[in-house]
Write a structure and sequence with these properties.
By secondary structure, the protein is an alpha+beta fold. The protein is built from nine helices and 26 strands. Helix 2 packs parallel to helix 4 and helix 8 packs antiparallel against helix 9.
C-alpha cells in the first residue's frame, strides 16, 4: 500500500526535504516559479550531477524571474516554457508537481513561488513507481505537445530522459532525447544520433550516459549526463569489541557497508556513514541492529550484535559469626596409653590402661605401680630431677610426666595429639 503524506504547513521546507533525498533525477512542472531558495536547491543538485528539468508556464510572471532561470541554465538545469500565456489564448500550463528518482511524487496546490510560501496551500508526497511514471508521461507530453522551446535565443537545449535509472544487471533501459539548436549530436553509449529519437541499451554496471551537442555555425557546445545505477545487495561487516561488560564499562562497535545508500544503527545511534566505529556504554544488555538500504527497498539488509551488561558488584551485607564459648572435646573410647611396667621395664613390656581422664591416674589403683626409679628410667630423666619435682610441686611433676610422654610417643601422631589435648585440660 502506497504511503501518502499530506502537508499543510511549512510546505517549502517539506519540498526541500524531498529534494535533498534525490539521487538521480528531478522533474519539476510548476506554472509559476519565482522562489530563489527552491531554485538554488535545483541548481545545487544539477551541479552534483543529477539530471534536473524544469517546465514553467509561458507567462509574464515567469519572465520577471529571468535571473533565476539564467542561473539554473548555467548550473546545468534545462528550463522550458510551454502552454498559452493566458486562458484567452488557449490552455495554460497550470500543473504543480515534481517527480524525484522516478518514484517519489510531490503534487498539490503549491506553485514554486515566493507568494505561495505565505499562502494557504497544500501538497501530498507519496512514493509509488507506477504513479510516478504517469506523472512523468505527463511531463514528457507537456514538452512535446506544448511546443517546448528554449528560454534563450539560439541556446542549445538538450532533453535527455530515461524510462528508469535503477535496474537489475542485464536489464534494458530506454533512452529518449530531443536536442534544439545543434548540428552534431552524439551519445557515448550509442554514437552519432539525430536531433530527436529513442534507443535501448543493456546495463551490466553503473553507467553514465552522456549526450553531447555542438552548433558549428555559432561554435557552441553543450552536454548533459544521466547516471544509471545497477542494483546490488548491501554487504555488511558489523562487530563488537566484546560481548560482555560490567555496567559503566565501554565497548566498541565497528562497521563497514558496501552498496548502500543509507546506513542506520539502532537503538540510539541513528544514521551513520558507510564505515565507522562508535564507543558505547549502555546501562543494560542491548541488541544493536545495523540496517543498510540499497537502491531499492528489496535490497535492504540488516545485521545484529548483542552486548551483555552485568551490574557492578556491590557489597550489600557482610556477616561474620561471633565466636561463642569454644569447647574442645576428645574422645578416648578404645584409646589406650601404654605405660612401662615394673615387671620388665628393660624389655619394654607394657601394660595398657584406658584413660578417660588422666587425672584418675592419681586416684585409681594401678597394679604393679612403678617406682621412682622405674619412672625416671622410662621417662629418660635423672632420678634426682624427678625427686626434686615431687618435692617442689605437683604441677611441675605433671609437666615432667607430660614431657616424657611426648618424647615416648613422638613418632605416633595420633597419640601425640591426644597427649597435647589432655595436657591443655590439666595445665
Amino acid at each position: 500500500m502506497t504511503e501518502v503524506k499530506s502537508h499543510l504547513d511549512d510546505i517549502r521546507g517539506q519540498i526541500l526535504t524531498e529534494l535533498n533525498k534525490a539521487k538521480f533525477s528531478i522533474f519539476v512542472a510548476s506554472a509559476y516559479f519565482t522562489d530563489y531558495e527552491l531554485a538554488n536547491k535545483l541548481a545545487d543538485k544539477a551541479e552534483r550531477g543529477l539530471s534536473v528539468d524544469l517546465i514553467i508556464s509561458n507567462s509574464d510572471i515567469n519572465d520577471s524571474s529571468e535571473t533565476i532561470f539564467e542561473n539554473l541554465r548555467d548550473k546545468g538545469v534545462n528550463v522550458y516554457k510551454t502552454g498559452a500565456a493566458d486562458f484567452r489564448q488557449g490552455a495554460v500550463m497550470h500543473n504543480k508537481f515534481c517527480v524525484i528518482d522516478y518514484e517519489t511524487v510531490i503534487t498539490g496546490s503549491y506553485n514554486w513561488t515566493r507568494q505561495a510560501a505565505i499562502n494557504e496551500e497544500n501538497i501530498v508526497v507519496f512514493k509509488d513507481k507506477k504513479q510516478a511514471d504517469q506523472f512523468l508521461q505527463k511531463f514528457y507530453s507537456l514538452r512535446k505537445e506544448g511546443g517546448l522551446f528554449s528560454f534563450f535565443d539560439n541556446e542549445i537545449e538538450i532533453n535527455l530522459s530515461l524510462n528508469k535509472n535503477v535496474v537489475e544487471q542485464g536489464q534494458k533501459i530506454k533512452i529518449s532525447w530531443k536536442v534544439s539548436n545543434a548540428e552534431i549530436i552524439s551519445i557515448n553509449q550509442i554514437g552519432a544520433v539525430e536531433n530527436e529519437g529513442e534507443a535501448e541499451i543493456t546495463i551490466n554496471d553503473d553507467t553514465l550516459i552522456i549526450l553531447e551537442a555542438e552548433n558549428k555555425s555559432s561554435e557552441k557546445q553543450k552536454a548533459k549526463s544521466v547516471l544509471v545505477k545497477m542494483i546490488r545487495e548491501p554487504i555488511i561487516t558489523f562487530d563488537i569489541s566484546t560481548q560482555f561488560i560490567i555496567r559503566t564499562q565501554t565497548a566498541q562497535l565497528n562497521w563497514s557497508v558496501e552498496n548502500a545508500e543509507t546506513v542506520k544503527i539502532e537503538p540510539t545511534i541513528g544514521s551513520v556513514e558507510v564505515k565507522g566505529s562508535k564507543t558505547i556504554n549502555p546501562f543494560e544488555s542491548t541488541t544493536y541492529t545495523i540496517t543498510a538500504v540499497g537502491l531499492t527497498e528489496s535490497t535492504t539488509r540488516t545485521k545484529v550484535v548483542t552486548l551483555n551488561v552485568y551490574p557492578t558488584p556491590v557489597l550489600e551485607r557482610l556477616q561474620i559469626p561471633t565466636p561463642s564459648n569454644i569447647r574442645l572435646e576428645a574422645s578416648f573410647e578404645n584409646s589406650k596409653i601404654d605405660l612401662p611396667s615394673i615387671l620388665n621395664i628393660n624389655s619394654i613390656e607394657k601394660f595398657s590402661f584406658n584413660v578417660p581422664k588422666i587425672r584418675q591416674l592419681n586416684s585409681e589403683f594401678i597394679p604393679n605401680r612403678p617406682t621412682i626409679n622405674n619412672l625416671a628410667t622410662a621417662l629418660k630423666i635423672p632420678k634426682k630431677e624427678l625427686y626434686a619435682s615431687i618435692g617442689e610441686s605437683e604441677n611441675k611433676l605433671k609437666s615432667i610426666l607430660f614431657n616424657g610422654l611426648v618424647r615416648i610417643f613422638s613418632k605416633n601422631p595420633k597419640m601425640s595429639e591426644i597427649i597435647k589435648t589432655v595436657r591443655k585440660n590439666y595445665e
